[in-house]
């Protein structure tokens, strides 16, 4: 089975690792990939046949005879004609939804309208175009949540405690147009612990996978600006039967039924970002893919034949019997480069990678230098992932292993797996 995974970060490294550990015979390909990923998967793009557009990506898949395309990241799903749409035309099974359904992630207003239309619990909101409209929607209520309505690599959201911070963000988004053209959502501030729920959706069928919690702020204690995520924890123990049933009945099933009612086809992972408020779980957002860094905590717990599971699912048969999740806890810890998240620094030598044992290293933003060693090449640099029978054991292990790796200016939280429990 020839499998392509689209994307280049720690999540795609984790997806490819889980596939490579499946008992099924596989030949792995990656686009755009990274030097570390290319230890596991062959690059799909090369000098002779460079891949740039969705059409050239499909042509490259046809050239090598790809049997399954897995969308790791979201951008290709909504670019040009859409990755899944183009795969459908070419007859290549794709794990990832078509463009029209991926609007659930690409447009926050589309997602809010979907949630409201189908009676799925979420916070109140208003969509606005101008600073004046935003101010009247906020109506002096703080904290307020402001979101740019488009893809902004996790940076288009501001939880503003007061007027000054709200004005600053409004100015960046609606005046300076930092993220380009687009509307802004003013959202009700929801309080409670967050949880990320992942499900595999295949038309009318779904399977809820192991849940996770990620840590979005850069500093300990959930201080500082939002990032793409600084670490994540996963365990089946995070959801008791009652909460699980509530999430399934009020959120997951109504979402699947809503997609069908709206004529939106879906085969792929669907990520539900939830806030567990005192009035019950509410949806903060949908993502049409696995979370990053949640994938680096959840996927190492997968047992069984993940490769065949994805292949069958992409062809229309959800087979929950093919995989299971191990007991215990899995924690992943991100090391980020100097300056992140405002900027990032590349070219810092990474030491100690060969010392890591009993944990996995997923590369998010590294490259091989001319001398052959890995160096930083991005904001989030690498993710160490370890497991344990208890949360405390997993925390101790992931920090002990992460301590062996270092680079100049490294930023790392010290409370991943302990804070918010
Ligand atoms: P999003 O990209 O929409 O997931 O937002 C990023 C993060 O901002 C979330 O994980 C939450 O921590 C926070 N956030 C988003 N929406 C809200 C909300 N309505 N109330 C409180 N916090 C929120
Ligand atoms: N960890 C959050 C995300 O993948 O969007």
What key phrases describe this protein's structure?
five-stranded parallel beta sheet; Rossmann fold; alpha+beta; 421 residues; binds glycine; 28% helix; single chain; binds adenosine monophosphate; Dna Ligase, domain 1
How would you describe what is shown here?
The protein has 421 residues and is of the alpha+beta class. Among the domains are: 2-98, Rossmann fold (3-Layer(aba) Sandwich), CATH 3.40.50.20; 124-187, Dna Ligase, domain 1. It is 28% helix and 28% strand. It contains 12 helices and 24 strands. The chain has helices spanning 10-20, 54-64, 75-78, 83-90, 103-106, 108-117, 131-138, 163-175, 241-261, 294-298, 306-314, 391-402; strands at residues 2-7, 27-32, 42-43, 68-71, 94-95, 125-128, 144-148, 157-160, 184-187, 194-202, 205-208, 212-214, 217-219, 223-226, 231-234, 267-277, 280-287, 302-304, 323-325, 329-336, 360-363, 366-368, 374-376, 380-388. It has a 5-stranded parallel sheet, with helices on both faces. Strands 12-15-20-24-21 form a 5-stranded antiparallel sheet. A 4-stranded antiparallel sheet has the order 6-9-7-8, with helices on both faces. Helix 2 (54-64) packs across helix 4. The longest helix is centred in the middle third of the chain and has 21 residues, at 241-261. The model has no long low-confidence stretch (mean pLDDT 96). It binds adenosine monophosphate (AMP) and glycine. Residues 154, 214, 229, 287, 291-292, 294 line the site of glycine.
């Amino acid at each position: 089975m020839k499998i392509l995974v689209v994307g280049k970060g720690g999540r795609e490294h984790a997806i490819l690792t889980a596939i490579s550990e499946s008992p099924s015979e596989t030949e792995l390909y990656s686009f755009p990939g990274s030097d570390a990923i290319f230890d596991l998967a062959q690059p799909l793009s090369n000098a002779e046949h460079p891949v740039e557009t969705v059409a050239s990506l499909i042509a490259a898949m046809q050239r090598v005879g790809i049997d399954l395309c897995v969308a790791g990241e979201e951008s290709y799903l909504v670019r040009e004609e859409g990755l899944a749409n183009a795969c459908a035309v070419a007859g290549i099974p794709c794990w990832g939804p078509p463009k029209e359904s991926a609007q659930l992630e690409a447009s926050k207003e589309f997602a809010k309208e979907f949630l409201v239309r189908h009676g799925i619990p979420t916070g109140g909101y208003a969509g606005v175009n101008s600073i004046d409209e935003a101010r009247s929607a906020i109506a002096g209520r703080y904290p307020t949540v402001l979101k740019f309505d488009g893809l902004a690599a996790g940076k288009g959201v501001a939880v503003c405690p007061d007027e000054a911070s709200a004005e600053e963000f409004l100015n960046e988004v609606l005046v300076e147009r930092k993220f380009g053209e687009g509307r802004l959502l003013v959202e009700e501030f929801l309080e409670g612990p967050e949880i990320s729920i992942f499900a595999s959706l295949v038309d009318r069928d779904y399977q809820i996978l192991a849940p996770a919690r990620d840590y979005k702020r850069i500093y300990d204690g959930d201080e500082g600006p939002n990032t793409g995520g600084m670490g994540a924890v996963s365990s089946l123990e995070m959801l008791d039967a009652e909460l699980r049933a509530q999430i399934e009945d009020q959120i997951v099933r109504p979402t699947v039924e809503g997609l069908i009612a709206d004529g939106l086809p879906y085969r792929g992972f669907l990520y539900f970002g939830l806030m567990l408020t005192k009035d019950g779980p509410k949806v903060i957002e949908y993502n049409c893919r696995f979370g990053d860094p949640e994938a680096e905590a959840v996927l190492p717990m997968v047992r069984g034949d993940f490769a065949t599971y994805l292949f069958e699912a992409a062809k229309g048969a959800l087979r929950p019997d093919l995989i299971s999740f191990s007991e215990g806890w899995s924690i992943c810890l991100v090391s980020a480069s100097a300056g992140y998240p405002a900027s990032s620094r590349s070219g810092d030598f990474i030491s100690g990678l060969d010392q890591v044992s009993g944990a996995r290293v997923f590369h998010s933003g590294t490259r091989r230098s001319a001398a052959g060693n890995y160096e930083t090449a991005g904001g989030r640099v690498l993710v160490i992932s370890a497991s344990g029978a208890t949360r405390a054991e997993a925390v101790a292990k992931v920090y002990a292993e992460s301590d062996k790796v270092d680079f100049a200016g490294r930023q790392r939280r010290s409370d991943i797996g302990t804070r918010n429990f």
